[in-house]
Write a structure and sequence with these properties.
This protein has 593 residues and is α/β, with parallel strands linked by helices. It has 2 domains: 296 residues, Rossmann fold; 276 residues, Class I glutamine amidotransferase (GATase) domain (Rossmann fold, 3-Layer(aba) Sandwich). 38% of the residues lie in helices and 20% in strands. The strands form 5 sheets. Strands 13-12-14-15-23-22-21-18-19 form a 9-stranded mixed beta sheet, sandwiched between helices. The chain has a 7-stranded parallel beta sheet with strand order 5-2-6-1-7-10-11, sandwiched between helices. It has a 3-stranded mixed beta sheet with strand order 16-17-20, with helices on one face. Strand 12, helix 12 and strand 13 form a beta-alpha-beta unit.
Length: 593
């Protein structure tokens, strides 16, 4: 088993996740099977109880794990399926060690950080790295391990100590480290000087902690000048080819191309002795990896064309001050734009600014927000928790419904679409949500009875679950047509506590225009809503963004974006009914034509 450790220095948020994912993609392009582990030094058991405005989105895996958002990068880049164990936190590892101590597993020893905690970390990495991550069920060849935070932080110390020992456990030629550092420009601007001192100090910190970087990946505003690369190599005691420039590019999809241009694959091959890998990649895996890489390059370069039409999507959300809070949503729209051969213009709209109160307190923001909604080609209302901004979301949904603007509601967005329709189309007095409008006369959204109300962590309806399309929807449903009339059910990942009230379904559906197109496998819980007479008005209880991949976009987002771009019929006619979209196959078909 081969291991690649990706660590970071100087500042947090330097791009370790994208570089780790890009490294995995390059390895996969060589015919290797790749898995990933993200280490987060925080004390939380998982990311489920953390505010999205502080930590970014909570990503959910098939098995219901609530994970760090970098797990999403890994799955999107590598077309892999990871588990809750692929995200290791301080909380998880301390919990494991303490439980072992309580059982008496340590046979009366004094339990300490070293060696008991550090050994547990190494055992965890070694065990999880063996878990198959693709349909072949083969054990991975390489595991990319990302250490979150910044080397030198006190909370990272046990993990760094464990990883320094793990290098020896893995053995020579089986472990390499990429250290991601930031090279600032002083003063900022095209003529400022690129400063290497922070990187020198960061590498010193890593070595002092017991690790020795094999590659230094330098994040910077513009390509490093030759003399700067030379200085970093000299001062950090590495070869020139071990200093990589990862400068700003038009999209993160260019980063793998940037690394390959600097012969990063050759460096990995040498450092990990991949030529001697046993068993070596089969011809099928080599061909698949090469083909995958070819399509990635084609997609990425096609998005740089200045001839692409722009499609504006208004994302009406609660956490728009931190784009990472909706990172999978944004990526899913990018995937759909690639597939439709359009340019995405994503407009962030704070839902609170659409409410009447904002008209008095922040008139400029109010009018700006409504201008964005009224001029958008499509309106998207994503998930969220709490009452803030939800009345603004309802107003945006009403605009989309009554003005025939393509609309997609996800989780909370779907629930609010039900509330809006119940209020304004069904004229149901006091229609609301038990979460947002406690004590309302007609709660159309209710708390799921099986959910534990006493705890927050890991108590929602989580993970991949079935959605069964309802009878008599195949002939008209635009959403279902994306999957094909013969597809009776799909599987998507969920994360919610509230649902459409079973008692109100008949009332809402009575006019026959607003239809519950998809339900759970028992036929009791709403999964998909759609308005028959609308160009594209769809709400989904699940989070389709969790399963969208760069080379296999989500059909929920693809259909919505295609409708906003005016190409829904074309996209449905060409790819509807093919099951999960495989971008590699689809592009190959286009090239053959």
């Amino acid at each position: 088993m081969k291991y690649v450790l990706v660590s970071g220095g100087v500042i947090s948020g330097v791009g370790k996740g994208i570089i780790a994912s890009s490294t995995g993609l390059l390895l996969k392009s060589m015919g290797l099977t790749v898995t990933s582990i993200k280490i987060d030094p925080y004390m939380n058991i998982d990311a489920g109880t953390m505010a999205p405005t502080e930590h970014g989105e909570v990503y959910v895996t098939d098995d219901g794990g609530e994970m760090d958002l970098d797990i999403g990068h890994y799955e999107r880049y590598l077309l892999t399926t990871l588990t809750r164990d692929h995200n290791l936190t301080t909380g998880k590892i301390y919990q494991q060690v303490i439980e072992r101590e309580r059982r008496g597993d340590y046979l009366g020893k004094t339990v300490q950080v070293v060696p008991h905690l550090t050994n547990a970390i190494q055992d965890w990495i070694e065990r999880v790295a063996q878990i198959p991550v693709d349909e072949s069920q083969n054990k991975p060849d390489v595991c990319v391990v990302e250490l979150g935070g910044t080397v030198g932080d006190i909370e990272s110390a046990p993990f760094i100590h464990a990883l320094s020992q793990f290098r020896r456990r893995a053995g020579k030629g089986n472990f390499m480290q990429i250290h991601v550092s930031y090279v600032p420009v002083i003063p900022p601007g095209p003529h400022g000087e690129q400063k290497t001192k922070p990187t020198q100090r960061a590498v010193e910190d890593v070595r002092r902690a017991g690790l020795s970087p094999d590659i230094i990946a330098c994040r910077c505003e513009r390509p490093l000048e030759d003399h700067v690369v030379q200085k970093i190599a000299n001062m950090c005691q590495v070869d020139l080819k071990q200093v990589l420039t990862v400068h700003n590019v038009s999209s993160t999809y260019h980063v793998p191309l940037l690394l390959k241009q600097q012969k990063f694959r050759e460096s990995i091959t040498q450092l990990l002795d991949l030529d001697q890998l046993t068993p070596s990649p089969s011809k099928v895996m080599l061909d698949h990896g090469a083909h995958m890489w070819q399509q990635w390059v084609s997609l990425t370069r096609a998005q740089d064309s200045s001839n692409l039409d722009s499609v504006s999507i208004a994302l009406v959300g609660k956490y728009t001050n931190l784009e990472d809070a909706y990172i999978s949503v944004g990526k899913s729209l990018e995937h759909a734009a690639m597939y439709c051969k359009k340019k995405l213009n994503l407009v962030w709209v704070d839902a609170s600014n659409l409410e009447e109160e904002a008209k008095e307190t922040a008139p400029a923001e109010f009018h700006k927000a409504w201008h964005a909604v009224c001029t958008a080609d499509g309106i998207l209302v994503p998930g969220g928790f709490g009452v803030r901004g939800t009345e603004g979301m309802v107003k945006a949904i009403n605009w989309a419904r009554t003005k025939n603007v393509p609309f997609l509601g996800v989780c909370l967005g779907m629930q609010l679409a039900v509330v809006e329709y119940a209020r304004n189309a069904c004229k149901l007095a006091g229609a609301g949500s038990e979460e947002l409008h406690p004590g309302c006369e007609n709660p159309v959204i209710v708390y799921m009875p099986e959910v534990d109300r006493t705890k927050l962590g890991g108590t929602m309806r989580l993970g991949k679950r079935r959605c069964v399309f309802q009878p008599n929807t195949a002939d008209w449903s635009k959403f279902r047509a994306l999957y094909g009339k013969d597809v009776g059910e799909i599987e998507e990942r969920h994360r919610h506590r509230y649902e459409v009230s079973p008692d109100k379904m008949a009332t809402i559906e009575k006019d026959g225009d607003f239809v519950f197109v998809g339900k759970d496998d028992k036929g009791e819980r709403v999964e998909v809503i759609e308005i028959r007479s609308h160009p594209f008005f769809v709400g989904v209880q699940f989070h389709p963004e969790y399963l969208s991949r760069v080379l296999a976009p989500s059909k929920s987002y693809l259909g919505f974006f295609a409708a906003a771009a005016g190409v829904l019929e074309k996209i449905t006619a060409k790819y509807g009914g093919n099951g999960p979209i495989d971008m590699v196959s689809a592009i190959t078909e286009e090239e053959e034509e």
